[in-house]
Design goal:
The protein has helices at residues 30-44, 59-63, 117-134, 152-158, 210-217, 226-232, 240-245, 279-291, 318-329, 343-354, 368-377, 393-399, 410-415, 433-447, 450-461, 467-481, and strands at 14-18, 48-54, 66-76, 79-88, 96-101, 141-145, 169-174, 203-204, 207-208, 220-223, 250-252, 302-309, 334-341, 360-364, 380-383, 403-407, 426-428. It has 2 domains: 3-256 and 467-481, Glycogen Phosphorylase B (Rossmann fold), CATH 3.40.50.2000; 276-461, Glycogen Phosphorylase B (Rossmann fold), CATH 3.40.50.2000. By secondary structure, the chain is of the alpha/beta class. Pathway: Glycan biosynthesis; glycogen biosynthesis. Residues 287-459 form the Glycosyl transferase family domain. Belongs to the glycosyltransferase 1 family. Bacterial/plant glycogen synthase subfamily. Its EC number is 2.4.1.21.
Length: 482
């Protein structure tokens, strides 16, 4: 009998997801969307799923009721840290949400970018395990997301303080292998006492590497697409050999999207809701409303970019792409950019806006409601990513009937099948301006075939990229390692 069916007896299997991001509490990227959705869908499949994350001074935390479930303290090196565990009172997210607050460490507004970030993450992990120990909590699975919680599998197995957790199974998910949480060995004094013979499990190239430690010590690791798993064997910012050596415990599981949030038929943020049957007309209504606030012409096809201004996302290419498209289309294509990040990229994009490039508008920053509105208004989504472990933007776009134009890497290759291969999107190989603009021209040429374009919109919107399938695959993995 599958372990998930034991819920009908006396036992309910329990998984704790550990992460520093979770939508809608705190979001920087796709990690938050995954952690905010996967547990909800696992709960629907009969597991008791919960998320544990740091406490943030953010609207969600201020606007919802929380109860204190535990208070404790621990030494991080010579510093005594007091911590409080809060639980969201009404489980409004569809799973248990726990926040850990540590005065001076985990009580800030932002998720990243602090000088003592490494010590923050270390304190978070220490507090989680201290809470588990003091309340005798023994989950069936501890699921760790990215390097920020990468020390957990090691500490559960080899720290003297948490020996009662040594046989609890751990799963690690790599959302982005480029970031690894490196820290020097002089920070080892901040760790809980551990079996010193095992120090090599923490080390990679003379540094403490939490991502490497997580992969070495977990019972299974996943990546957020099959394609990205293969790429990590070849290039992983120095860890490619480790990923390859540990491949027998790996599996690629593509992310899903939460249809309770991302569905144009019910999305409350939209000006006009629509389903696959009314895709073109519904999207046009949203585009026309968008044009009343921004510098776009609703009569023109609209290309959008939504994401961080980072070289990883190919955002550094945007200014040259815009100039090339402007020259080729002479104002016959609308372009909208929603993003922020690298100041150098942002300033180059701003120069184009200030120069009055026709039918171009930009929103610097990130606005969740505007992102939904853009997916509902746009005809094409551009993703010139250099690295894209899974990518959620292309999944959102297709659900909203927006044709993705993507660089064929990682999860983009797995999820976007080219029109030339009886698919529904446009893919390109190589990140030169001529190659990218040629791909966009292919998309806009297809747009001119109105009947085919509208049929493709309906086709995309009926694709199943829901979390139901992906959540079931994670539970199957849990069952295997237990």
């Amino acid at each position: 009998m599958p372990l998930t069916q034991i819920k009908y007896g006396l036992i309910l299997m329990k998984v704790f997801h550990l992460s520093v991001e979770c939508y809608p509490v705190a979001k920087v990227g796709g990690l938050a969307d995954v952690v905010g959705a996967l547990p909800k869908y696992q709960a629907k499949l009969g597991w008791e799923a919960a998320v544990v994350m740091p406490w943030y001074d953010r609207p969600f935390v201020r606007d919802h009721a929380f109860t204190v479930v535990h208070e404790g303290s621990f030494y991080q090196g010579s510093e005594l840290l007091n911590f409080t565990v809060y639980k969201e009172a009404e489980d409004i997210l569809g799973f248990g949400l726990y926040l850990i607050k540590i005065p001076g460490k985990l009580d800030r507004q932002e998720v990243y970018c602090y000088a003592d970030e490494g010590e923050q993450f270390m304190a978070f992990q220490h507090a989680v395990l201290s809470w588990f120990k003091e309340k005798a909590i023994r989950p069936d699975i501890v699921h760790c997301h990215d390097h920020h919680v990468g020390l957990i599998p090691f500490l559960m197995k080899y720290s003297h303080d948490y020996i009662h957790l040594a046989d609890v199974k751990t799963v690690a998910t790599v959302h982005n292998g480029q970031y690894q949480g490196w820290t020097t060995w002089n920070k080892a004094v901040l760790l809980p006492a551990y079996d010193s013979w095992k120090w090599g499990l923490l080390d990679w190239d003379g540094l403490i590497n939490p991502l490497a430690a997580m992969i070495k010590c977990c019972d299974a690791y996943t990546t957020v697409s099959e394609g990205y798993l293969e790429e990590l064997y070849v290039e992983a910012n120095g860890l490619q050999q480790l990923f390859y050596d540990e491949r027998d415990k790996s599996v690629g599981i593509v992310n899903g999207i939460d249809w309770e949030i991302w569905d144009p038929a019910t999305d409350y943020t939209l000006i006009a809701n629509y389903d696959a049957k009314q895709a073109f007309a519904g999207k046009l209504k949203n585009k026309e409303a968008l044009a009343t606030q921004y510098n776009i012409d609703p009569k023109l096809p609209l290309l959008v970019f939504i994401g961080r201004f980072a070289t990883e996302k190919g955002a550094d290419l945007l200014p040259d792409i815009i100039l090339e498209l402007t020259a080729k289309y002479q104002g016959r294509l609308g372009i909208f950019i929603l993003g922020a990040g690298d100041p150098a990229i942002q300033s180059r994009v701003k120069l184009l806006v200030d120069a009055g490039v026709e039918n171009l508008d930009v929103f610097f920053g990130y606005d969740e409601n505007l992102a939904h509105w853009l997916y509902a208004s746009a005809d094409f989504l551009l993703m010139p990513s250099r690295v894209e472990p899974c990518g959620l933007n292309q999944l959102y776009a297709m659900k909203y009937g927006t044709l993705p134009v993507v660089h064929r890497v990682g999860g983009l290759r797995d999820t976007v099948i080219d029109l030339d291969n009886d698919g529904y999107g446009v893919g390109f190989d190589g990140l030169t301006i001529p190659v990218i603009t040629e791909a966009i021209i292919r998309a806009t040429t297809f747009y001119a075939s109105k009947k085919q374009f509208e049929e493709n919109q309906r086709k995309m919107m009926r694709l199943d990229f829901s979390w139901d399938k992906s959540a079931a695959k994670y539970i199957s993995l849990y069952n295997q390692i237990m």
